[in-house]
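Budget justification aside, the reviewers requested a transparent look at the raw inputs and outputs of the sequence design task funded under Objective 1. We therefore reproduce one unedited record. The lines immediately below are the structure tokens for a 247-residue chain.
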């Protein structure tokens, strides 16, 4: 069985002092975690994280990556730059980027490709809005989002991580029930299986108000391979409880 992955998504939070306290508490509390643990931090803190995690099992992630290699793209950060700081994961296509930065399925697919080309594991986010769920379109939406990534990346998708994040559950305290999440994870699993014979390598994370109280029941579902954790990853005690639940 593959190891579960618990990835924190700090979003636009943190400062040097708070990061240090949080990471030190995580390193102390993680021990020999049964799962892989990563924190996806704002880019200015990558150097700090590289120093803090040195010699530990804590992995570093970025929250986005440019689809371009280099050049005149003001404000963008390339995969090669991320690599220099020991970044292993990059979140791609988070719903906040789709919503506030107009990221399309095609762009998300391109970013996935660039990350893979540089040995960074993209955590590709898919998920429906509340209106889409209520209109009975959940399956159609997540399959469309996933299909774009499969189409552009072919068999290389066996190297990605997927995160199913229902938009209505992000930062709202409304979690998908384990059954609701499992249902979508199973259909994503089937879609990935049809695209690559190595789909068993792909971890499918759940994200959206995962917390210390609900993590164990979500993570016990057969197709939930870990979590992408926002708010609860900013509190060491809560994040450590989620890590402990991932076995
Ligand atoms: P949340 O965020 O855990 O705060 O809902 C998850 C995410 O957006 O990745």
């Amino acid at each position: 069985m593959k190891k579960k992955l618990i990835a924190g998504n700090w979003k636009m939070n943190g400062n040097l002092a708070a990061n240090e306290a949080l990471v030190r508490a995580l390193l102390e509390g993680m021990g020999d975690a049964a799962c892989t643990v990563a924190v996806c931090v704002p880019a200015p803190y990558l150097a700090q994280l590289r120093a803090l995690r040195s010699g530990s099992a804590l992995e570093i992630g970025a929250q986005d990556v440019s689809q371009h290699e280099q050049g005149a793209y003001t404000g963008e950060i390339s995969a090669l730059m991320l690599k220099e700081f020991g970044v292993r994961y990059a979140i791609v296509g988070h719903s906040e980027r789709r919503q506030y930065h107009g990221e399309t399925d095609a762009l998300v697919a391109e970013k996935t490709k660039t990350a893979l080309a540089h040995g960074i594991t993209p955590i590709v986010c898919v998920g429906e809005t509340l209106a889409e769920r209520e209109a009975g379109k959940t399956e159609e939406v997540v399959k469309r989002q996933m299909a774009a990534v499969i189409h552009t990346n072919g068999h290389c998708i066996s190297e990605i991580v997927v995160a199913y994040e229902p938009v209505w559950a992000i930062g709202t305290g409304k979690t998908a029930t384990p059954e609701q999440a499992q249902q979508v994870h199973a259909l994503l699993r089937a879609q990935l299986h049809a695209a690559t014979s190595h789909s068993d390598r792909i971890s499918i994370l759940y994200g959206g108000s995962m917390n210390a109280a609900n993590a164990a029941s979500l993570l016990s579902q057969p197709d939930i391979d870990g979590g992408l954790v926002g708010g609860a990853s900013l509190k060491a005690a809560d994040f450590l409880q989620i890590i402990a639940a991932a076995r």
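The mean pLDDT is 97. The chain has one domain: 5-245. Computational costs for records of this kind are itemized in the attached budget.
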